[in-house]
Every structure is written in C-alpha cells, then in structure tokens.
Amino acid sequence: MDYAAALLEQTRLLGEVIRAADPTLPVPTCPEWTMQQLFRHVGRGDRWAAQIVAEKADGPRDPRQVPDGKPPADIDGAIEWFHGGVRTLLDAVEATGPDTPVWTFVGPRPAAWWIRRRLHESTVHRADAELASGLEFTISPELAADCISEWFALFAAEPPGRRTPPLDDPNTLHLHAAEKDLGSAGEWFLRRDGDALTVDHSHAKATTAVRGRSVDLMLALTRRRPTEDAGVEIIGDAGVWNTWLDRTGF
C-alpha cells in the first residue's frame, strides 16, 4: 500500500466533511469534542509528527507547542492549513530519510512509521466526523484491514506494564474479515506470550472469534460503533472480546 497517497486521500475526504459541517457539532464517538476540536486535533497531530521527524527527535515533543499548530479562522485558510500539515510531514520524512530512527510512543521507529500512523489516525477520525454528520462511512477493504493490523501492532509493541494486558492468559482472539480477496491480510490471531501480546495472520481456533466486513470489524475494534450495532458476529466467549475493548482505549 502507498501510505503517503492514502494519507493524502483520507485527509482530502476528511477536509470535505469538515468544510460542510457545523464546527460546533458534537462528535459522539469522541466525547466532549466538537467537530472543530476534532479538526484541530488531526491537523495539529500531523504537524506534531512532522516536527518529530524533522528534528530526528529521540524524545517526545509537546503537541501544544507545535509551530503553526492552530488553523486560520476562515474555512478556506483552515482547510489549506489542514492539507499543509500532511505535506509538511511527507516532506520531513523525505528530508530526514524514511529509515532514519525517530521517537514514537512505542519506541524508536523509522521515520516513515509516522506516515502510516497518521493515515490511520485520519481514517478513524474521518469515521468520527462522518458518523457525527449522519453520513455513511465507506472505506476500501484493504485500507480497513491495514488499519486493523496497525491497531493491533500498536498494542503488541507496548512495553509490559504500560496497561493491563488486553487478553487474559490463556484466552485467544481471532478476527476474520468477510472479504475473501483479502486472504491472510484479513485474519488476525492474538494470544499472550508471557506479558507480551503476539499477533499474526494465521487462521486458527480461538477462545473467541469475531467475523464481519473489514470496515465493520475496524469500527467495532476502535469503538466507533457498539459491537451490537456493528454488524459483526461473535463466536465463543463474548467476554474475551468485551475485555479487549475495555482495556484498549487511548
């Protein structure tokens, strides 16, 4: 997948939703946020990532101190600011070198890691904005599946002790996307290995299996839709799935 092109496209789509929306509209999937706050969060986040990459940072940066971190008041200027953050990030990765190690919240990673991270941040927040606006959220199965893979990878990369493990040993969890064309990219098998979480794309019997379209799995997994409304099927112990959701909030 061309993560840079996908990030530009998701930013464009989110910008269109923002342009048409009431900035004071509440965003139910991001409690206490309005559409304007969601917009600023995503736009500032792109610039935050760009700063980390450009400085080859070996530690975190304060998002509140990001240069040019607030959009202009007029909507045209604000949308241009929004798109400008992504361009700044892509330029920073190119200038720094995509393989150059930089700080991330799961440990040092290649600078290009931030492109994929910002892609899926923008994708999920586009879902927030469209659901708040009463629109139907659509996404390609390939992008939805990669969003799920990246989401699981974040938790697998967390150091032990950061949070209560989302799976209790010996429970296992298997997600299976309905789209056959995805092949193994549409399957995820999760288990505990000591204090660590391991994820692979195998098809194996688990304590709990969750099946559905990739977009529905993505929305349920990121808690953008309640499981009962997401159109997914749970096979086995639903408590394992509910525990996973309870322990994987950001």
UniProtKB/TrEMBL annotation:
Pfam family, one: MDMPI_N
Domain named Mycothiol-dependent maleylpyruvate isomerase metal-binding: residues: 5-129
GO MF: metal ion binding
Record SUPFAM superfamilies: DinB/YfiT-like putative metalloenzymes (SSF109854)
Domain MDMPI C-terminal: 142-241
Xref: InterPro entries: DinB/YfiT-like, Maleyloyr_isom, MDMPI_C-term_domain, MDMPI_metal-binding
Cellular component annotations (GO), alphabetically ordered: plasma membrane
Domain of life: Bacteria
PANTHER family, per the entry: CONSERVED PROTEIN
Name by which UniProt lists this protein: Uncharacterized protein (TIGR03083 family)
Lineage of the species this protein comes from: Bacteria, Bacillati, Actinomycetota, Actinomycetes, Mycobacteriales
